[in-house]
């Protein structure tokens, strides 16, 4: 397979101000809010970004082009990101940097065992941390030469993307969810609510996750979450 992006022109060299210039980053992430943060970080860093919101979409992308960097969320709607990471680490030619992303830091050992080059804990908003995680995983010839200032900057995703995530989970809960769907809802909302500083929703998602971990009925927790999501969807966003 061709290891270049067929839509890209001549690859520019990275600079101190834009150290990821010339790189294509495939972000495998189901949260639009989290992905919007990563889009802004890539934009500030000079990288091109492509997004896949599930394993199936990611595999379709990879049939067409080979990115330089893959950022893979470990909790996806159609399975574990660890499965995709294992595939990527074994494929030839190998993607130059494969980085796991997750709001659950206890997943890092599993990601390392699957062969990732790096791990980023969500929420991911620090420009310097984002750049360093990618650059430290790349070959030396992909990094900018000379001294480079570490940018003291964070990004703030558009709140409309948060509304999109609420709509996504509302769709999941519209039909009676099965056990896998409930686990997914709890995991998804814990990460997204933490990134958005929505402590009430995060606490409710953790309550659902706790009941699921104990194997106990979670009807009241699910209903409470569904109500909170509908309330957030009804809120007006100033544009």
Automatic annotation (TrEMBL):
PROSITE patterns: RESPONSE_REGULATORY
This protein's UniProt keywords: Phosphoprotein
GO biological process per UniProt: phosphorelay signal transduction system
Protein origin, superkingdom: Bacteria
Gene3D superfamilies: 3.40.50.2300
Residue list for modification 4-aspartylphosphate: 73
Coiled-coil stretches: none
Pfam families documented for this protein: Response_reg
Record domain Response regulatory: where: 24-137
InterPro entries: Bact_response_regulator (IPR050595), CheY-like_superfamily (IPR011006), Sig_transdc_resp-reg_receiver (IPR001789)
Name of this chain's protein: Response regulator receiver domain-containing protein
Record organism: Sulfitobacter delicatus
